[in-house]
Design goal:
single chain; alpha+beta; four-stranded antiparallel β-sheet; two-stranded antiparallel ribbon
C-alpha cells in the first residue's frame, strides 16, 4: 500500500507529539536562512510539530528564567530535534525528500533569526495564532509549547491558518518586564524584548536568550485538559 497522508498521520501519532500539522511553503511569507534556494523549491510542504512545556517547571518562573527552566527548555528542543530526525528518516524511507530544521539554532545573530519561523509555519498549519506576546498561541496549550519544522516534497493537505484569537485576554501585557508586549501584536517591541532577555541571560548565568514570563502566563486550556485526564491536578 502506498504511503499516503493518512498513514503518515497515524505514524506521527506514535511519536507522542502534542501537536502536528501540515502547511504549504508557497503560503509562507517569512525568510529561510542557511538553505540553498534550489533545496527550498524542491520541498514545497512543511510538517510542523510541537511539544508542550512542563507546567511544574513553568511554575518556578517568577520574575524571569532560572537554571531549571533553562535545562527543561533545552531538553524539549533536543526531543523536538530527535523527532524531526525520525520523521525525516521515515519520509526518506518511503521515497520522499525531507529536511529537518533545528528547533532552536540562531543563524542571524544580529536579528536573532533561526533558519525559519517555526511559529509562522505552525500558524499556517492551523496549530495556533500569533499572539500579543509574539509567540504562537495554541487554544489548548497557550504559548507553553516548543516547535520545529520539517520540509518535504510529500504532498500534504495544509491546515487552516488561524486568525488572531487572544480577543480580550491581555494577561501577558501586565507581566512583561520589558513592556515589550502591546495591545496590537504588530506593535511588539522586539528590541526591548531582546535587551531584557540579554540582561537576564548575563545576570542569571543562563546560557540562552530566554525569559519564560509571558510563556508561563499564557496557559490556554491546558489546566482544564490535564485535570480532566485521570484527575491530574496542575499547579
Amino acid at each position: 500500500m502506498p504511503f499516503g497522508e493518512e498513514q503518515f498521520r497515524n505514524w506521527l501519532l506514535s511519536l507522542d507529539l502534542d501537536l502536528f500539522g501540515f502547511a504549504r511553503m508557497e503560503d509562507y511569507d517569512g525568510e529561510i536562512l542557511g538553505v540553498e534556494e534550489e533545496v527550498i523549491y524542491a520541498l514545497p510542504y512543511a510538517v510542523s510539530i510541537g511539544i508542550r512545556l512542563s507546567r511544574a517547571v513553568l511554575s518556578t518562573v517568577k520574575d524571569g528564567p532560572n537554571l531549571l527552566y533553562y535545562h527543561h527548555y533545552r531538553q524539549i528542543n533536543l526531543r523536538l530535534d530527535a523527532c524531526a530526525t525520525l520523521i525525516s528518516r521515515k519520509l526518506e524511507e518511503e521515497g520522499f525528500m525531507a529536511l529537518p530544521l533545528p528547533a532552536s539554532q540562531i543563524v542571524d545573530w544580529k536579528r536573532q533569526y533561526g533558519h525559519i519561523s517555526h511559529k509562522k509555519i505552525a500558524n499556517l498549519a492551523g496549530l495556533g495564532w500569533i499572539g500579543r506576546n509574539n509567540l504562537l498561541v495554541n487554544e489548548t496549550f497557550g504559548s507553553q509549547i516548543r516547535l520545529t519544522t520539517i520540509l518535504t516534497d510529500m504532498p500534504l493537505n495544509p491546515g487552516k491558518r488561524l486568525d488572531f484569537g487572544c480577543n480580550g485576554c491581555k494577561m501577558c501585557l501586565s507581566v512583561c518586564p520589558a513592556g515589550a508586549i502591546k495591545e496590537d501584536p504588530r506593535d511588539f517591541d522586539h528590541i526591548g524584548c531582546y535587551k531584557m532577555i540579554t540582561e537576564m541571560k548575563n545576570k542569571r548565568n543562563i546560557g540562552q536568550h530566554i525569559c519564560g514570563i509571558c510563556v508561563e502566563i499564557c496557559k490556554g486550556k491546558i489546566r482544564e485538559v490535564l485535570q480532566a485526564h485521570k484527575g491530574i491536578k496542575t499547579p
